[in-house]
Every structure is written in C-alpha cells, then in structure tokens.
Amino acid sequence: MGDFLGIVGLSIGVSLAATAVAAAVSLPLGSALAVFSFRGRRLLVVLVNAFFGLPPVVVGLILYLALSRSGPLGFLELLFTPAAMVTAQAILAAPIMTALVHRASERAWARYGDELICDGATRTQAIPQILRIIRADLLTAVLAGFGRTISEVGAVILVGGNIRGLTRTMTTAIALQTSQGELSLALALGAVLVGISISISATVFALAGSARTAGSDEA
C-alpha cells in the first residue's frame, strides 16, 4: 500500500507541476499569437500545431542527452530526478495547451478585438481581457495538458529512470510490473489512471458543451 500511494502521489504531483509550468508559458503565448500580428506568426502557429504529434521518446532522448553529464545542461544534475520528469512532461503538454488557447483567443479577438481597441486598450493590455473572456476554454486547455502529462511514459522513463521511491510513476510502474508478471499492482494503478483519464475527458466534454451553449445564447 505504501508503494501504491507513493507512486500515485508522485505521478499526480509531477503532472500537476508540469501542467502549471506549461500553462505559465502556453496561456500568454497562445493568446499573443492571436492578438499580435508579426512576420512569421503563421509559421509559428503551424509549428505549434505540428508539435501536437511530438514523439515522447524522442523528447525524452533529447532531454536525456542534454541533461547527461556530458550534455550542455549536465551541470544542473537533474537527470533521473522528478525535475527532469516535470520538464519532459511540460515540453509535451505546452504545444497542446498553446494551440487550444490560440484557437479560442483567435475567436474572441475577432469578436471583441475592435471593441477593446476602441476602449483604449493596447494589444498587450487586451491579452488579460481576452484570457478572461475565454476562461472556460483555458480550463479545457489546462485539463487537456494534465491529461497529456499524467498518461506519459516514454519520455518520463528515459529522463526519470523509473527509480523506486524517487521517479516511479503510475505509467512506468505499470510497464515494469507487467513485464515482471506482477499484475496486481499494475491493475490497481491502471484503474486509478483510467479513472483520472475518464474524469478529465468528461470534464473537458462538459466544459466544451457549456461553452457552445453560452456562445449560442450570446448570439
């Protein structure tokens, strides 16, 4: 039971931290991509959406090489620590969250942008207002990011090392226990992971439905 609770607690803690880091970057970036016009913006938007399909193991490999003792960030000594896992998960979640926020911000800017500018707001000052307008979509983006992080295994096992009591998460523990034929713990962790995933998906679906209803009522 101690191992079980420790694994679940570490998984949720690391994923929450990674989601928070990704959100701190993605929310303002996604909104800024909708509000500001600059050369290369369309290319940047395309790249953000393309990074939806980043292979986790490739992200983990690149981060592993960067954080290894011979790598450029080896002096940080973060390899095989929860911090490395947070970094890997945040990199994977950020494109998803940025793209979702950008799409919602683009719709809001098209509808309210002229009004905000006429009221005297600069584009920079308009970003917090746009984020407030799309707050339901922000929650959807954050939940989608958390769903991405909590289910990650490839990158996490490379940079975390799956060390018992230190970097073993639900996904890596399930992989290990299954390979060893010890299915009881794997099934228990799988049930928790499925429960979290279903809860996130149901919440995102409900929020999306509420947003559509609100949009119809406003129209």
Structure description:
It is a single chain. The protein is mostly helical and 219 residues long. Helices cover 79% and strands 0% of the residues. It has helices at 2-35, 41-50, 56-67, 82-118, 123-133, 135-150, 154-160, 170-179, 183-218. The N and C termini lie far apart (53 Å).
Helix content range of the residues, please? over 70%
Helix and strand pattern: HHHHHHHHH
Shape category: globular
Outline the low-pLDDT stretches: none
Q: Which band does the percent of strand residues land in?
A: under 5%
Average pLDDT number: 90
How many beta-strand elements?
0
Count of runs of 4 or more consecutive helical residues? 9
Computed structural class: mainly alpha
How far apart lie the N and C ends? Answer: 53 Å
Rg on CA atoms, Å: 20 Å
Q: Can you summarize the main beta sheet?
A: none
What are the SSEs and their pairings?
Elements: H1 2-35, H2 41-50, H3 56-67, H4 82-118, H5 123-133, H6 135-150, H7 154-160, H8 170-179, H9 183-218
Offer a few descriptive terms.
mainly alpha; 79% helix; 219 residues; globular
Brief overview:
By secondary structure, this protein is mostly helical. Helix content is 79%, strand content 0%. It has nine helices and no strands.
